[in-house]
């Protein structure tokens, strides 16, 4: 399925054999990874559309999104966060140009698991720039971004790595994205 909508090109493929296609040979993707339920798809579409866009269905496989800006075109590759898809993360992180890691700020019990996977990924590619989205900051139970920084041990990612942490939320569907998300989008375009 492919469609175009205001600078957004979306392709969704549920078949795992897709990973063996030509996509695997590309090295220019901005990877969007994180545990299932973190809000990766909602964050990605909100960045693409400059409007809050909620996603209710978890990504089953791969989701490729192209975002056009005034000066560039960025290709994002989201890989599902449930257990069967995490093995693909390591394959793609070695070839990615930027890693966006999304965590659910309100799901305290899963932060140690998110930390484990994040640190495994950055060991595979010790130079890939890292942007962490501490998502769902609008929820009452959400940890503040300083607590997320500590829970994910982000001070251990290395002094030589470019790393940013943003507190994000995708609140009312259809509303304009918060300024922090616009700042993050501008930063990602600059890093890419």
UniProtKB/TrEMBL annotation:
The keyword Nuclease does not apply. Mg(2+) binds at residues 41, 59. It comes from the Eukaryota. GTP binds at residues 34-41, 81, 135-138. The keyword Nucleotide-binding applies. SMART domains: ARF, SAR. Signal peptide: none annotated. GO terms for molecular function: GTP binding; GTPase activity; metal ion binding. Keywords: GTP-binding, Magnesium, Metal-binding, Nucleotide-binding. Belongs to the small GTPase superfamily. Arf family. PANTHER family: ADP-RIBOSYLATION FACTOR-LIKE PROTEIN 9, ADP-RIBOSYLATION FACTOR-LIKE PROTEIN 9-RELATED. This is ARF like GTPase 9. The lineage of its organism: Eukaryota, Metazoa, Chordata, Craniata, Vertebrata.
């Amino acid at each position: 399925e492919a469609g175009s909508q205001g600078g957004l090109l979306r392709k969704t493929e549920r078949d795992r054999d897709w990973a063996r296609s030509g996509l695997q040979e590309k090295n220019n993707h901005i990877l969007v990874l994180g545990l299932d339920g973190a809000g990766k798809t909602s964050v990605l579409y909100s960045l693409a559309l400059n409007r809050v866009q909620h996603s209710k269905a978890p990504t089953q496989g791969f989701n490729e999104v192209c975002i056009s800006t005034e000066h560039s075109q960025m290709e994002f590759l989201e890989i599902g966060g449930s257990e069967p898809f995490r093995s693909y993360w390591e394959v793609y992180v070695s070839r990615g140009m930027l890693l966006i890691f999304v965590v659910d700020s309100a799901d305290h019990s899963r932060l140690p698991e998110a930390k484990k996977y994040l640190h495994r990924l950055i060991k595979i590619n010790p130079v890939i720039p890292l942007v962490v989205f501490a998502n769902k900051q609008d929820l009452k139970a959400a940890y503040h971004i300083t607590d997320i920084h500590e829970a994910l041990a982000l001070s251990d990612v290395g002094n030589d790595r470019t790393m940013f942490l943003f507190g994000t939320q995708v609140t009312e569907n259809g509303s304009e994205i918060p300024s922090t998300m616009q700042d993050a989008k501008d930063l990602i375009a600059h890093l890419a």
